[in-house]
Amino acid sequence: MSEGLPKKSCSWKLAIACGGTGGHLFPGLAIADCLHEANHQPTLILSEKPIDRLASEGSSYPKVFLKSLGWQSGQRLRFLAFFPLRFLDCFKWMLKHRPDAVLAMGGFTSLAPTLAAVLLRKPVFYHESNTIPGKAVRSLAKMASLGFVGFESAKALLSPARVVLTGTPVRIEFRSLERSFCCSELGLDPEKPILLITGGSQGALALNRKMMQALPWLHQSLPQCQVIHLCGMQEDLLSLRDAYSQAAIKALVLPFMERMELALGAATLAIARSGASFISEMAAAGCPSLLIPYPHSTDAHQRVNARTLADANAALFMDEREMTPQRLIAAIVRLSTDVPFREKIQENLQTFDAPDAAARISEQMVHYLNRGGFLGQDASSSTVSAPSGAKRASSMLNPERSMTTML
Q1: In terms of Cα–Cα distance, which of 102, 114, 103, 105 is closest to 133?
Q2: Cα 352 from Cα 218, distance rounded (Å)
Q3: CB atoms closer than 10 angstroms to residue 223
Q4: Burial level of 334, CB count in 10 A (0-12/13-18/19+)?
Q5: Residues 17 and 162 occupy one common structural domain
Q6: Which of 30, 32, 44, 298 has the smallest number of CB atoms closer than 10 Å to its CB?
């Protein structure tokens, strides 16, 4: 059982390496919020990608921006040549600011901070959101004091004795807004169905193009349907807006939405990729979805993520190779008009929601720092409360602690 975390205990400085994609960043922000509420001092280690800057600009936590490359085909020699410089930058930053521990949220932005922490004999923690651990997590898990996973299947592929199943953290905003408020903020009618379409930062192109082809059928099948389309690519923005206008469909088309809770809170259904962070947000919001895995995800982890939900009747599944305008419309119509089917999906989604994930991860890390051990696999109820407010606005945080560092 959990022994609790007194808010007045020692204040720890934790560096959270969560850059690269929204799937790493948003769970990291949720954990930072919990740590801050318990009087600890989180710092965000991010990449220089525009998505990281845009998504984190509402946060007043100290930030460190790293130049980084992924381990993609065609970039590996550049990664190996570039990595020692990033490692030295992290090492110098840690010598100066002396964090007590590092939490790695996955992705290759996490490697340099993790190695620097190991060399400085600082505890290292990590979180893996997906069903199949990524290459970066598999590498750093060997150096970590303790790990956390979003799915049971990931635990068996790491070091089970030092891994705790927590679920994936979701920001408190996803649990605190009413649909009518979300619709009002977005200028949409809550009395009409709303379809959310999002391909994430990497997988938007195919969804964008297929949906443009499907729009005439969408208007014919669901003439009152409104759309929130997060296109992810600036070059698709104008063509998508024009396509919705020609189809006479009311649509909000944006490259990215920082306040994703508004989109999921307003939506009656969604079409999306199946990254673990989005799945957790979808489950928290109770939004029934058609999941179309990004086919180039590492180790096909998005396919496994989506299949896991589909096998539990918590989502619809479609392979991108089978994605046609007609099949998309058929899935949209079913999720929109078959009320018992939609309600069953929403009920099953609850099993994938972990409302205390951020608090449990925070508690485990602080317990380790306080006492040199972890709470055990059965620590299922946390005494670290989730953040009490629904916003992460700078007015809630101490602006004097805000710091942005370029490495």
Answers
A1: 105
A2: 30
A3: 10
A4: middle
A5: yes
A6: 298
CA-to-CA distance for 9 and 370, rounded, in angstroms? Answer: 9
What element of type H or E holds 195? strand 194-198
CA angle 251, 253, 259 (to 5 degrees): 110
Q: What is the DSSP letter of 372?
A: S
Residue 310 domain boundaries: 176-352
Residue 197: CA atoms inside 13 Å, Cβ hemisphere, count? 29
Indicate whether 7 belongs to any domain: no
Dump the DSSP string for 165-178: E------GGGGS--
Mean pLDDT for each 10-residue chunk of the chain (407 residues)?
46 92 89 96 89 81 79 59 80 94 89 92 95 84 92 86 92 88 97 94 82 95 97 84 96 90 96 94 96 88 95 96 95 96 96 95 95 59 39 29 39
Residue 1 in any domain: the answer is no
State how many domains the chain has.
2
pTM of structure: 0.84
345 in the same domain as 200: yes
Contact yes or no for 85/115 (Cβ under 8 A): no
End position of a domain, from candidates 334, 352, 370: 352
Q: Would you call 58 helix, strand, or coil by DSSP?
A: coil
280 and 181 in a common domain: yes
- Residues 55 and 136 both lie in one domain: yes
Task: Specify the pLDDT at position 338.
Answer: 96
Three-state SS annotation for 83-137? HHHHHHHHHHHHHHHCCCEEEECCCHHHHHHHHHHHHCCCCEEEEECCCCCCHHH
Cα–Cα distance between 11 and 31 in angstroms, integer? Answer: 15
My answer on whether 234 and 85 are in the same domain is: no
- In this predicted structure, what is the pLDDT of residue 158? 87
The closest of 125, 83, 45 to 361, measured between CA atoms, is: 125
pLDDT of the residue at 379: 41
Residues 66 and 194: their CA atoms lie apart, in Å, by 38
pLDDT at 306: 96
